[in-house]
Amino acid sequence: MTNPAPTRSIKRCAVVGGGIIGVAVARELAGRLDGAQVTLYEKEDRLAGHQTGHNSGVVHAGLYYEPGGLKAALCRRGVGLLQEFCATKGLPYDACGKLVIAQTPEESRRLENIFGRATANGVPGARMLDAGQISEVEPNAVGLSALHSPETAIVDYAAITNALADDVRAAGGRIRLGQEVTSLEQQGSGVVVHTRDGGEHHDLVVACAGLQSDRLAASTGEPMNPRIVPFFGQYFLLGKEARQKVNGLIYPVPDPKHPFLGVHLTKRIDGEMMLGPNAFISFGRESYSWKDVNVRDVLDYTLFPGFWNFARQNVPSAVREFQTVVSKRKFIREAMRFVPSLEGATVLPGTRGVRAQAMNGDGSLVDDFVISRRRDTVLVRNAPSPGATSSMAIAEYIVKKALEP
Hints:
It contains 11 helices and 20 strands. It is of the alpha+beta class and 405 residues long. The strands form 4 sheets. Strands 4, 5, 6, 13, 14, 15, 16, 17 and 18 form a 9-stranded mixed beta sheet that branches. β15 (264-267) and β16 form a beta hairpin.
């Protein structure tokens, strides 16, 4: 990391949130601010306890994102930083490749548009395949056409987060686990970070609170919207006998009629092969099983007009996703559209994650990264996929914004 002279006098700074973005920001601050005390607050007893530790582990290459947008720029920069970091730390980085497969002429047309974006974003090696060429990459896959991204990779984001944290500590930073931040209070100069143990004053605070980002933003006086509405995603694991039927990642073509991508196949860094995820409303922001019901979280979205606007606009999607929630067979059928030979394969329950989906009052989903500044606080309001891929680039972007006068 480079160490340019900061444009503000900062002696004490804090980061709220111990996911990969928060820890990457703490590392960037520790590297840039000579002599400053950097403190990271995480309410769990471990890092990467929520979205970072429950995602698919994919390093996205930048296929889908609007050229010139924040997602596209930070994704491509993030891939390079992540690959270099994994090489330096001896962490696994498997460029297993990805196919986005079209099954209809309409999907093929949409896929050509995605290929145009991938080319504009500088995705290395991206190419279109016809039906006959698909089997050269994935022998058991079928489709009308496909987009191949050979350098899409998989990693262990929890391991990366802990390695980033090691760098924070090595630079003199403090990581305080089990410290839930309840509010942020702007002073005449600086911000008081309040926890249940009291308050501490910092010259600068960066909030990377993920599933709690809207609540923490509201404590600073910012609007509650965009609101976080939690959607869970369930994964299944293929049995050992079927694992070798897929070499890398197989995705459907995004459908503009549906807000979420749908079931796909994802190789995991430990060799497992995942099916999923689906996407359905969660009974809590941190609910990883059906038994975990958080009444406050449910009331938050049921009393939010934007949620009902979203629900009215997406009835067909809700029906599609609900079918995969209640029927494992339907779930597997979705994957078999791309790999028919999965018929009869053993399928085991896998992990469940909860997506921090930012939603506007009109029910529209916030797609791009949203990072705002309020005096001495920088707030990460939305960091959807490819947030983990882009984490180190997001950290650069945030710290640059934070150090501006």
